[in-house]
Amino acid sequence: MQKFAIRHILTAALLLAAPAFSQTNPQTDPQTNTTLLVDIDHRPATSLDGDWHTIVDQYSTGVYTLHQELRKDGFFMNAPFDPNGHPQDYNFANAPTLRVPGDWNTQRPELFYYEGPIWYEKDFQHTAAPNTRTFLHIGAANYRTLVWVNTRKICEHEGGFTPFDCDITAALHDGNNFVVLSVDSTRIADGVPTLQTDWWNYGGLTRDVSLVEVPDQFIDDYDLHLSRTDRSVIEGYVHVASAPAGTPVTVTIAELHAKVESTVDANSRAVISIPTKSLSLWSPENPKLYKVEISSGPDKIEDTIGFRTIETRGTQILLNGQPVFLRGISIHAEAPFRTGRAYTQKDVDTLLGWAKELGCNYVRLAHYPHDERMTRTADRLGLMVWSEIPDYWALQFDNPAVLAKSKQQLSEMIRRDRDKASIVLWSVANETPNTEARTKYLTAMVDLAHQLDPTRLVTAALLVRTEKTATGSNKIVDDPLGKALDVIGTNEYIGWYEQHAEGADTTTWDIRFDKPLIMSEWGGDAKAGNHAPSGDTHPALWTEEYQAEIYRHQIAMLNKIPQLRGTSPWILMDFRSARRVNPGLQDNFNRKGLVSDQGVRKQAFFVLQKAYKDRTLGKAE
Ligand code: GCB
Fold first, then answer.
1. C-alpha–C-alpha distance, residues 207 and 597, integer Å
2. Mean pLDDT, to the nearest integer, of 469-490?
3. What contacts 396, CB < 8 A, 6 or more positions away?
4. Mean pLDDT for the chain?
5. If you read the UniProt record, what top EC class would you report for this enzyme, in one word (predicted)?
6. Measured from the CB, is residue 430 less than 6 Å from ligand 1?
7. What is the predicted pLDDT for the residue at 6?
8. Which atom in ligand 1 lies closest to the alpha carbon of residue 590?
9. What's the angle, vertex CA 36, arms to CA 17 and CA 290, rounded to 5?
10. C-alpha of residue 526 to centroid of ligand 1, in Å
C-alpha cells in the first residue's frame, strides 16, 4: 500500500503535550499522530456508536506495573480471560458497557463525580477495499485519549472538544478486529482548560465514533469562502492528501452552473477561484446553503456551504457589507432535560430552537467547540456563531507546552468548522488575567487565528476594570489584549457579583478601543419557580423576579453604549457546575439560565425576548 504523509495538525503540539501515558511503550507502534478530515459528517462511515465494554481504571493499572513502569501486557492487549490460565485482572468480554457517544458521568450513578481514566473496547468486522485507507474518527473524547487497534498503538490526542482521525489501515485485518481506547478526564494544571472551570468535567467518548474509508489519495481539507474584496468570487483551496503535484481537482456548484478545475501544487494543495453570478448571500434572514461537490480522482465529497462576508468598519460589524447587530445568547453544550454533554440532533434542535424563540440572530457557543451538529444547524437556521476554545481563566500562560495545546485546539476548531457560514467570530479566550505573559500568549493565538482564517473576526471575552465615580461606577475597557482583537468581548455581572440590579443605571462605560464591542456575558441566577411575593418591589436574589430585574436594568444600560454591536447574556439554560453547591438553590447547577435544565422558561426569558423582538436592544450603527 502506498505510503503517504498525513497533513499533521501541529504534530509539535502533540509531542509537547504530555499525556499520562506518553512514554514510549516497547509494545506499541511509535505512530502517535492524528489528523482531522474536513466534512467527515458527509462521508460514508461505519458507525461504532453504541455499547462499548468499559473498565474504570482509577490507578491506571491498565498501563502501569506496580513499580509505575509501562506494561507490555496492559489492558490494550485485550487478552481473552482464561480462568485456568495466567491470572489476569481484567476481562473486557464481560465488563459492563457504556453508551457511545455519551459522557460517563450521567450514565452510571457511581461515575457522576469520577475524573480519571476509563478503558473502552469494541469489536468490529472489517474487509479492506483495495487502494483505500481507513481512519478511526473520534468526534470528541474528554480529555486525553490513547488508541490501540488489534493491540497496536495508533495515536494519542489531547483536548476534549475537537475531533481527530487516526489512520488505522496498517493495524487492520479482514474479519474480526478490536479497538481499545483509554480516555482520561483528569484535570491537569498544564491542560487547556486548566484546573478551574465553571462547567462539569464530563468525561468519555462524548461524540460519535466511526470508521471512515477513503481512497489512497483523498480530500482531507479545504476552504471555500466568498472573497472580501469581490463578492462575486468564491475563493480558497482544496488539499488532497498524498497527491503529487499536478493532480487535478474539480469543484462544482451545480445551482450556480459553476464548475472549476485546478491542480495541486507540490504541497498537494490546489488554489480555487470560482467566479459566480447572482449568488444568494447567506445571512440570518436568508440562510442559503449551496451544495458544493469537490472531487479529485476517485475521491468525491459533497458539502453544503453558505457564502457571506464578515468584516468590521470602525465600530461596526458588517455582514455582507451591511451593519448588523448581534442579538445573541450564550450556550453551553449541556443536554436539555437529561443533563450531560449535548450531542444529539435533538439536543441541538432544542437549544437552538430556544435561541430562535428568543429572537436571536446569533449565539455564543461557550466555552469550547460544540458538536458539529450545532454549527451545521446554525448554518441552516441562520444563526451567526461565536466559537471558542477553552483558554479559560488562568491557564499556565508562561508555559510553552500549554501554548502548543491551545494552538492545537484552535487549529482543530478552525479546520473542522471553516466551511460553516454561521461562524463569524473565533474566540481565543475567556476572562483571562491581565498579565504580560497572558497578553503575549493570547496575541500569538490571535495571530494564529488570523493566519489560519483571514476571512473571519477574532475576539475574546475580556474582564473589565471598575472605578467608583461620584454618581456610581465607571467600567473601563482597556485590557491590552484588545489591541490584537477585531471585536472586543466583555463580561460583566452588575446586579449579581457586584452591586444591585439598579447599579446598571449609574454605570458608565469608557471603552478605549475604536472597535465593535460585544457584551459577551451578563446576567444572574434564578431558580425556576422561585418567586418573590407578588407586589414585592425589591425581589430577593435567586428569584425569577430579581433575574428579570437584572435584565431590565442591563438592557437600559447597554443601550447607552454607542459602540455596542452585540450581546450574549449568560446563559440560555441552567448547566451543571461543580462550583455551584448551595443546597436547594444550585445543587450543582449554575442557575443563570433563562430556561431551566428541564425547559422551564424563567421571567427574564420573556424580558430579553421582548427586547430582541421589538428591536429595543442595540443598534447596528
Ligand atoms: C463567567 C464565566 C462563565 C461563568 C459565569 C458565572 O464570567 O465566563 O463561564 O459560568 O461567569 O456564572 O459566573
1. 21
2. 98
3. 189, 190, 194, 402
4. 94
5. hydrolase
6. yes
7. 40
8. 12
9. 145
10. 14
